[in-house]
Amino acid sequence: MLAFIWAEDSHGLIGQNGTLPWHLPDDMHYFKKTTMGNTIISGSRTFRSYNKPLPGRENIVISSQSDFPAGVHVVPSIDRLCELVAENPTKEYIVTGGANLFSQLLTRVDRLYRTKIEGTFVGDTYMPPIDYSQFALVKSIPGIVDEKNKYPHTFEVYERRQFHS
Ligand SMILES: NC(=O)c1ccc[n+]([C@@H]2O[C@H](COP(=O)([O-])OP(=O)(O)OC[C@H]3O[C@@H](n4cnc5c(N)ncnc54)[C@H](OP(=O)(O)O)[C@@H]3O)[C@@H](O)[C@H]2O)c1
Question: Which of 17, 19, 138, 151 is surrounded by the most beta carbons within 10 Å?
Answer without folding.
Answer: 151
